[in-house]
Design a protein that fits this description.
single chain, 301 residues, mainly alpha, two-stranded antiparallel sheet, 11 helices, 2 strands, 1% strand, globular
Amino acid sequence: MRFSITLIVVSRNVWRVDQTDPNFNTPLPDNKQKLKQFYTLLMKGLNTMQFLQKIGQAESAPPPWGLWTGLFTILAAFALIILGTTIGLLLFSTNTAFASVVGWSLAALGMIAFVRITRGRTVEDWRALGLAVIPPRLPILFLLAFATAILFDLISLIVTGQSLVLPELFVLFNLNTPTLTPIDNNFLVWGIAVLFMVVFQPIAEGLVFRGVAYPAFRAKLGAWPGFILTVILAGMFHFLAYSSAPDGRWVTGWYGLILPTLDALFFTGVRAVTGSTRASIVAHIAFGIFAILKAFLLATS
């Protein structure tokens, strides 16, 4: 911050002009024009502090449910994962990959129904869930989220030295080979995996974590503690629910726990800044599309 302030002071001394001066926007020599453009970009960068301030703002109104309801909803979601996986294995015991994605899809549909029945009954509920707000420029948000997914993937590659898929897609690959090899290239398996990653999971987890748990945690614990708790629980949920290869290796630990936590940090940040769970769902969809595209490229390479 001191460095930024110094740059601003120096730039003003070079220009010898005040922003309130009506002549501030008059044409400048090339160097001074570039310096002015740099100053403008710098000030826009400093405005990113507003995002952190927005995350730290208290909820305008507490939701009509409390902390324990938020925790219970997460536990119910995990119970549905167990139930859905069990049903999938009973129905398709000869194909573990297919059974897993079917079970998780059933669980996600159960989460959506659970939140809709228990917390989506009134207009007040919808507002507290963050579903009443439809932010503008969703296509721009989608592109930003897709670019962030690429950035997180590059960070993962740099940190681990290996490119893996997300834990939800572990079941589709053999992780015990030097290079990822697909276990099953069945069209139906991949089709359900696409539906799960791009439709079912973003909506389900968006409603559970960013819709129900997030406002309840912030209202009870405070803005930042509630935000952080939501992110941590979402990351742990992913690790416990989807990581089918908890073999203790650093690489699978990163992709199974740390990367999903980073993803949850971004989704929850979108929810905090926009005030919209719909926006966080759109961001999650962008991450899901990237994950599927990467998995498909790895499976066909």
